[in-house]
């Protein structure tokens, strides 16, 4: 059945309890679920979140986008010793220990951990590796970080920009006739007000950020939209 409403959720970062609570607002029969990426890192239960999301895709066709933190995890696995300090400091420490259910990072070298991870969590890692960069529906584009608005066609945005771009997108002129719903940048930064984690909308009303900084004590935001526009917002 064609679903005429989207329910999209911002950056989860291992906040499994908040995700489960927010999903109570979702009607799987009538609403297409889209997760904007950054399932992992920083928060307490990245592994639980990844397993839950894999099940949501399997059971309900959930669309799960690639976030920069998924990319960082995958890049670390390719060069574990070289990228250890950076990735561990960006919340990777919490992700790795969550996957193994112990503080393995304090007992084994990065190379050994990466090899174990590739063997023991092949399904989860293949899932993360195959995430799309954006999802276009009606006049909306769902994306982790944003797009390059200077291009003639925003779809030619580079892979890295889809999950890393910030200011050029936030403050660029949007002439695409699309409304972008994105995460990646905690809304307190866009509001320029510490601890103000409400949903942010650009002055032109065509860019909506729903990264409520859940892992920083803010909110996990969900938003329902149909082809007319925003139907409702939900925050945990």
Automatic annotation (TrEMBL):
Cellular component terms per the entry's GO annotation: cytoplasm
Coiled-coil ranges per UniProt: none
Domain of life: Bacteria
Gene Ontology terms: biological process: RNA decapping
GO MF entries: bis(5'-nucleosyl)-tetraphosphatase (symmetrical) activity; phosphatase activity
InterPro entries assigned to the protein according to its UniProt record, in alphabetical order: Ap4A_hydrolase, Calcineurin-like_PHP, Metallo-depent_PP-like
Residue ranges of every copy of the Calcineurin-like phosphoesterase domain listed in the record: 6-188
Gene3D superfamilies the record matches: 3.60.21.10
Name listed for the protein in its UniProt record: Serine/threonine protein phosphatase
Lineage: Bacteria, Bacillati, Bacillota, Bacilli, Bacillales
């Amino acid at each position: 059945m064609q679903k005429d409403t989207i329910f999209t959720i911002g950056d989860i970062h291992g906040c499994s309890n908040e995700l489960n609570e927010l999903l109570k607002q979702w009607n799987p029969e009538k609403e297409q679920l889209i997760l904007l990426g950054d399932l992992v890192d920083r928060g307490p239960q990245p592994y639980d979140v990844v397993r839950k999301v894999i099940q949501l895709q399997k059971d309900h066709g959930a669309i799960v986008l690639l976030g920069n933190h998924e990319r960082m995890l995958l890049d670390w696995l390719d060069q574990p010793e070289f990228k250890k300090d950076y990735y561990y400091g960006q919340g990777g420490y919490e992700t790795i220990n969550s996957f193994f259910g112990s503080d393995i990072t304090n007992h084994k070298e990065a190379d050994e951990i990466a090899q174990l991870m590739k063997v023991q969590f092949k399904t989860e890692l293949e899932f993360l590796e195959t995430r799309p960069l954006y999802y276009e529906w009606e006049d909306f584009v769902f994306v982790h970080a944003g797009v390059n608005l200077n291009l003639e066609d925003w779809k030619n945005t580079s892979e890295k920009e889809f999950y890393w771009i910030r200011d050029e997108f936030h403050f660029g002129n949007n002439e695409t006739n699309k409304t972008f719903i994105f995460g990646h940048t905690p809304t307190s930064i866009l509001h320029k007000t510490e601890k103000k984690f409400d949903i942010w909308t650009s002055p032109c009303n065509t860019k909506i950020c729903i990264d409520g900084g859940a892992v920083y004590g803010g909110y996990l935001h969900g938003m329902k939209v149909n082809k007319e526009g925003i139907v409702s917002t939900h925050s945990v």
